[in-house]
Each structure stands twice: as structure tokens, then as C-alpha cells.
Design a protein that fits this description.
Layout: E1 4-13, E2 16-21, E3 24-29, H1 32-36, E4 44-53, E5 58-63, H2 66-76, H3 83-92, H4 95-104, H5 108-111, H6 118-130, H7 164-173
Antiparallel strand pairs: 1-2, 1-4, 2-3, 4-5
Amino acid sequence: MIALLRGVLLETHPNQAVVDVGGVGYDVTIPVSTYAHLPDAGAEVRLRIHTHVREDALALYGFLTQDEKALFEKLSSVSGIGPEMAMAVLSGIPALDLIANIRRGEVDRLVTIRRVSPRGAATISLTYRLASYRIPPYGSAARNARHVGTSDAPRRPPSRLRNRQNHSQHLKRGPRY
């Protein structure tokens, strides 16, 4: 998998950048926030890459920061939200505002983003509110911040293992292959 591209920026568009790395031009899909901070064409650029492999295509999604990439990967992992929709969400709202809106459950702002339906916005919000500690902190000031919802206490086991009867039945069955 391609994780990082460092090379000469050949051309940019609001949702696309072409980076020349060793004589090979890579077409990378980028959010508007990354586009706004890219240098001029001809300058060296370094993009963190999420490689998405499909049956018919190999797509590269680029970000200037690891935080943006992590947020993109969290968004695209939500059921019904693919990488294209995740890129549209990141392009439509600043990352800090997106995280704040998700944590507060405010789906109205998400619906204003092109290609995001009310149902999709509700799915994003609900998925992240249920697992709010998994939303990565964003920005250099947040690097040392604790995730919301975490504690030093051990996590509860999955529901199928909560009582001894289910636990022993699970052990008797063995692994499922």
C-alpha cells in the first residue's frame, strides 16, 4: 500500500493534485482543506496517502496531516459512507467543526454538505456518538488530550461474553473458520 508521497507538485485543482515522484505522476484526490495549504506548482510536497483498492480501480486519497487522514479513515469506515462521501464531508466542513458537530449530535450542519443525505448524516453522528472515544483528537494541542469516554478501567467484554453461561458456550464452540 502507498502510505506517503513526496515529490514535485505538478498541478492542483480543488479536489485533485498530481505529484511527480521519480518520474511517475500520481493522481491524488484531496479535500479542499488540503488544497488550501498546498504550495504552488513546481514546489516539493509531502502527502499522507490512504490507498483504496477496488475491483476496478486503485484510488489514492491525500492529506497534509496525519490527523486529517485518521479522520478520513474513521469516516469512510462508517457503514454506508465510502471514501468519496468521506472526502465530500471533509471538503464541506473544517475538521474541528466536524468533530464538534458529531460529538454534539448536530446533524443539521452535516446535511448542508453536498452528497450527504439526512440519513447519512444521522448514521455518521450516531456511529461516532456510540464510539465517541474513537474519534481522534485533532491538531497539535490535542495530541496529548485524552479521548472522550475513555477511562483507566478495563473495557467491558462483548455482550456475548458478559455472563458465564455464554462465555462457556463460546469456548465450547471454538473458533469459527
